[in-house]
Amino acid sequence: MDMGKGVAVSSRIEPSRGDKTLVTGVIGADTHIVGNRILSMALEKAGFKVVALGALTPADEFVKAAIEAAADGIMVSSLYGQGELDCRGFRELCIEAGLQGILLYVGGNLVVGKQDWDTVEQRFEDMGFDRAFPPGTRPEDVIEALDRDFAARAEGRQKAEKRADKKAKT
After folding, report:
1. CA angle 8-30-62, nearest 5°?
2. Per the residue annotation, which of 2, 19, 32, 126 is the catalytic one?
3. Is the pLDDT of residue 118 over 50?
4. Would you say residue 4 lies in a domain?
5. What pTM, to 2 d.p., does this model score?
């Protein structure tokens, strides 16, 4: 996810975070790695185990890494605007590999041109992603969503409800 400027991640580490492994990377032919690296470092600082795949990562490599690491979640980044094309069929790849319940997040500049974020977000949720984040999302907002979604799953729900006060900007 392209997180951009100033990372101010809380030093508070949730006890359960160390039990969670996340795969991060930049999908497709995208070489924009800085935001993804910032996110990976923030996730590690927050106590998550992170398998960072880097840039230019095909979808199937995310799935292979998730299997190898017994990951709890996959965090897909895209900044070059082709995320919509690169992410098609991603949930299906996970299901075929036996990862039907894995948490899937996607973020960055996911589509070409300026489009209404609510529409873009819905499109990625329809593709099977649990959450989609717009460009400029702060790492601490992603970490908070992870904490809430993992807690919801522990209670038997797929994910936590969206926070009304965290409405995405277009």
Report:
1. 80
2. 32
3. yes
4. no
5. 0.87
